[in-house]
Automatic annotation (TrEMBL):
Modified residues (4-aspartylphosphate): D51
Record-annotated DNA-binding residue ranges: 124-217
Protein name: Response regulator transcription factor
Keyword vocabulary terms for this entry: DNA-binding, Phosphoprotein
């Protein structure tokens, strides 16, 4: 799951990003509206966590620009105001959800997961394929009811593969969905993580390598 946090309070932005990474999400950070739009133009994000009062390009203008582009990213708007008319304004601008500051991190993460499930083809919170069960709400994985002890990146890669529902997922897409913008595109991270994940999933194998194309379950 790929998330962009657009928040000008750097300490809060970095704190939220670090917490979400601990939930096996790939997270990029922008500290103003212009930087957020630049990242949104080149990366595909599942959810944008958008502070409404961004400097430079206001959060409202970011929302309107994304609507003009026809962007598919789901928007969770953050604001210091919890007034009803402010929430209505944000939703009318194109936000999918609204959260007032201060907020509970657990609620923020739950809302992000709920929005991500609605991006693209809606999927249930519990995914099942090839004897693998993935509980995305609680970040737990099982094989034939046996708990799997996965690292954050192994879990993230498995989630991307399961969300593809049998479609082939390329190495580039795995880098896009499970790592952030700082990853070296020539890294062997996908190959190494995939090897470890296959070992933990056990036999019979459920992840197939498609030469020249990627991987599928």
């Amino acid at each position: 799951m790929r998330i962009l946090v657009a928040e000008d309070e750097r300490f809060l932005a970095d704190l939220v990003a670090e917490g979400l990474r601990g939930q096996a999400m790939a997270v990029d950070v922008a500290y103003d509206g212009a930087a957020a739009l630049e990242r949104l133009a080149v990366n595909d994000y599942d959810v944008l966590v958008l502070d409404r009062d961004l400097p430079g390009v206001h959060g409202d203008d970011v929302c309107q620009e994304l609507s003009r582009r026809g962007a598919q990213v789901r928007i969770l708007m953050l604001t210091a105001s919890g007034e009803v008319h402010d929430r209505i304004d944000g939703l009318n601008l194109g936000a999918d959800d609204y959260l007032s500051k201060p907020f509970s991190f657990e609620e923020l993460a739950a809302r992000i997961r709920a929005l991500a499930r609605r991006s693209g083809q809606p999927l249930p919170p519990v995914l099942e394929r090839g004897g693998i069960t993935l509980d995305t709400a609680h970040r737990r994985a099982y094989r034939d009811s046996r708990p799997l002890r996965l690292s954050l990146k192994e879990y993230a890669v498995l989630e991307v593969l399961m969300r593809a529902q049998g479609a082939v997922v390329s190495t580039e897409e795995l880098l896009e969905r499970a790592w952030d913008e700082h990853i070296d595109p020539f890294t062997t991270a996908v190959k190494v993580t995939m090897s470890k994940l296959r070992t933990k999933l056990g036999d019979p194998p459920v992840i197939v390598t498609v030469p020249g194309s990627g991987y599928w379950m």
